[in-house]
Amino acid sequence: MKYLDEYRDPKLAMQLSQEIHHITTRPWVIMEICGGQTHAIVKYGIDTLLPKKIELVHGPGCPVCVTPLEMIDRALSIAGRRDVIFCSFGDMLRVPGSTTDLLSVKAQGGDVRMVYSPLDALKIAQENPGREIIFFAVGFETTAPANAMAVHQAKVLGLKNFSLLVSHVLVPPAMEAILSSKSNRVQGFLAAGHVCAVMGYDEYMPIAAKYKVPIVVTGFEPLDILQGISMCVKQLEEGRYEVENQYVRSVTLQGNRHAQDLVSKVFCVIPRKWRGVGEISQSGLGLRDEYKDYDAELKFDLTGIKTMESPDCISGLILQGVKKPHECPSFGKKCSPEHPLGATMVSSEGACSAYYRYKRNS
């Protein structure tokens, strides 16, 4: 625990808290992008260490949460086929579709398997040449390189029975969508450190300048988040709108060029629908024409599946930072981790699950 404890030191946390109190003179609304940061904030009570003038709101940084309902229904359509082995990370198995979830399909006899890497699914494809193997490729820039590598390797190996159901989304366009919304309240961002470890943070600079918002690349431990908030508040108080990097131990300006090159080779930027938010232009990744043979949507002709969100779920407003989980009438009543209405209650990074797990009602 040595290398974690040093970022959870209570004395340093109080020093940072006092610093934030000292520099804060006006009300500010700051959004943390990543669901992992949201859980850390709620778990460790970071928001309770801040001045009342500082409000933290929770953004669309949970990949499970923003995967659209119709994409879940497409996954369910494929997973129920007898000739298919459907592979996914575990956090997608209980995300509700229109009528059921992948775990229920498995219980009813579907061959649904939890894997830890898309390369695990690739190995399953090699071992089962007579069946179609589909990997549910969701996530932000963080998971895109591994998924790109799986497709690239499948092509090199000449595998015809492997494909991806792709629902990749990109962070910067989502930030722009939030900032350009009439209901926007966000004045500063804590950007997700793991995303920036891959992509770098130069893409954020035009956003900070255009919308006059400070953006601080931040880690996930309590001291990371408190220092990131302090850096963000300092900029706001001084009228600066820059991109700063708190997470210097893991993130560089340019990011991981090799990973970026691999992603660009396999994927291209496309419009993408976000659950509860709607379609955002140029906010997703899709397979390039050279890799279309590995596109499960085309292989299984799933483009006709359309769905409607539950009217009882306000996850879209939560993901945009407009509402908090406890403001949902269904929170803890109609909606719980055992009986979720939306992905924000299911996911290990969802804001609703964080509030429910740590008994937060404010």
Question: Could you explain how this protein is built, in words?
Answer:
With 362 residues, the protein is an alpha/beta fold. The protein has three domains: 2-64 and 174-245, Rossmann fold; 67-170 and 277-299, 3-Layer(aba) Sandwich (Rossmann fold); 315-357, no CATH class. The chain is built from 17 helices and eleven strands. It has helices at 2-5, 10-23, 35-43, 63-66, 69-79, 102-107, 118-127, 144-157, 171-180, 193-199, 204-211, 222-238, 257-266, 296-299, 315-319, 343-346, 351-357; strands at 28-34, 54-61, 84-88, 112-114, 132-139, 162-169, 188-192, 215-218, 243-245, 267-274, 278-287. A six-stranded mixed beta sheet has the order 4-3-5-6-11-10, sandwiched between helices. The chain has a five-stranded parallel beta sheet with strand order 2-1-7-8-9. β8 (215-218), α12 (222-238) and β9 form a beta-alpha-beta unit. α2 packs parallel to α12 (222-238), α7 runs parallel beside α8 and α8 crosses α13 (257-266). The radius of gyration is 21 Å and the shape is globular. The protein starts with a helix and ends in a 5-residue tail after the last helix. The relative contact order is 0.17.
Layout of helices and strands, plus pairs?
Layout: H1 2-5, H2 10-23, E1 28-34, H3 35-43, E2 54-61, H4 63-66, H5 69-79, E3 84-88, H6 102-107, E4 112-114, H7 118-127, E5 132-139, H8 144-157, E6 162-169, H9 171-180, E7 188-192, H10 193-199, H11 204-211, E8 215-218, H12 222-238, E9 243-245, H13 257-266, E10 267-274, E11 278-287, H14 296-299, H15 315-319, H16 343-346, H17 351-357
Parallel strand pairs: 1-2, 1-7, 3-4, 3-5, 5-6, 7-8, 8-9
Antiparallel strand pairs: 6-11, 10-11
Helix pairs in contact: 2-12, 7-8, 8-13
